[in-house]
Amino acid sequence: MHFPILLGLWLASAEPGAALNAGRDCIQRADYSCAERHFRSALAALPPSNPRTAIAWANLGATLYLAGRLAESEAATLRALESFGPGMANEMASTLSNLATLYRRSGRFQDAEAFYRRAQRTVDSVHGVHSGPAGVLRHHFAELYRAWGRTGEAERHARAAVALLENSGEATHLPFINSLLTLGIILQSKGELPEAEALITRSLALREAAFPPNDPRIAPALLALASLRINGARVPEAEQLLRRALSISQASLGPDHPYCATALNNLAQTAKLGGHFAEAEDSYRRALAIWEKTVGQRSIDYALTLSNFADLFRAQGKLMGAERMYRRSIDTLSAVLGPDHAAVQSRRQSLQELTAALERHTNHRVSLQSLRKR
Fold first, then answer.
1. Rounded distance, CA 117 to CA 126, Å?
2. Alpha-carbon gap, residue 244 to 85, rounded angstroms
3. What is the rounded CA–CA span in Å between residue 136 and residue 92?
4. Do 226 and 238 touch, CB atoms closer than 8 A?
5. Burial class of residue 152, CB neighbours in 10 A (0-12, 13-18, 19+)
6. Alpha carbon of residue 56 to chain centroid
7. 208: closest CA among 163, 248, 150?
8. What is the pLDDT of residue 358?
9. Helical ranges in the chain per DSSP H
């Protein structure tokens, strides 16, 4: 039997250990604290040389990732890679891909690409290039290149993932549902909104049919649909979707999960559009605190939220605070994405406009002081 981890990766878990099986069942219910407890129990009972030890470490790493605890997830996943023995090619490929997903999420794109390619070589040799597992990896390449700003490559991989998974009989399973969502988000970034909305709406409908109403796997589609609504100036609808996503994530994953940070950042955006600046500021601060705790201040997520916060300060006339935030955001985005990335260039433009406004403000104050002295 297989179960989906890390947004759709597959890891064999048909092992006789009761704790491993119990952990698998907890993953299926998205009960990650339960899964962690069982996998740690398995590790406590298994000798280091037992092949199931590597499986337990890999599953624990996946569970910690899903719970938003990235540093702990990396340590457990690396322990798994050290523990795999001969004849465990599938498990090794899945774990390599899990580690790549973690690095992609942390903004370490070159490391992520290298590990995905290592996983791809094994998957293609064992299952074939037209298999379901190959489709899952194509989805993850799409996610990587989308985050990296390589939109053409991202779309190509996303369309291939959708086709491979659908043709492999996975059209009701989470990997396929995730691939629909990723393709929809990519098309939204390109301005192809009708097809994007159709894909995101379909992904949400499939999630709501497959999972209970408060399952955290529903939240990503709610967040994506809310983003579409914000872009379409349908702010009340977006806010309703975001509050639902935040409620689900807080109840099922805890208040410090990255899903909560994404929802809070986007709620701040809707509050800012409505002129509710105090509410927006509170939401930005809460989002930044979560990003700092989960992925760190040198992450893309933290930098983008900081840039949005700077926009708020600029709108309020808090120009010095906005300038500091823009500079921190640009430094991080340049380090991760490169100085020529569109996200960096747009924020440089905002900083230049802000700097010009500060200079005009300073010159105006100097002129007023000169008039008073006369």
1. 14
2. 44
3. 15
4. yes
5. exposed
6. 24
7. 248
8. 77
9. 18-28, 32-45, 51-66, 70-83, 89-105, 109-127, 132-148, 151-167, 174-189, 193-210, 219-231, 235-253, 258-273, 277-294, 300-315, 319-337, 342-373
pLDDT in tens, 301-321: 999 999 999 999 999 999 999
What pLDDT digit, counting tens, does each position of 18-53 carry?
899 999 999 988 899 999 999 999 999 999 889 899
Show the tokens assigned to 270: 């809707």
14: which 2 tokens? Answer: 């048909």
Under a CB-based contact definition with an 8 Å cutoff, are residues 97 and 140 in contact? yes
User: pLDDT band at 193, cuts 50/70/90?
Assistant: very high
Domains and CATH numbers, the chain: 1-109 (1.25.40.10), 128-210 (1.25.40)
Residue matched to tokens 């795999």: 84
pTM assigned to the model: 0.87
Q: 226-282 pLDDT, tens per residue? A: 999 998 889 999 999 999 999 999 999 999 999 999 999 999 999 999 999 999 999
Cα 56 from Cα 42, distance rounded (Å): 7
Encoded tokens for 27 = 């993953």
Which amino acid, 183? L
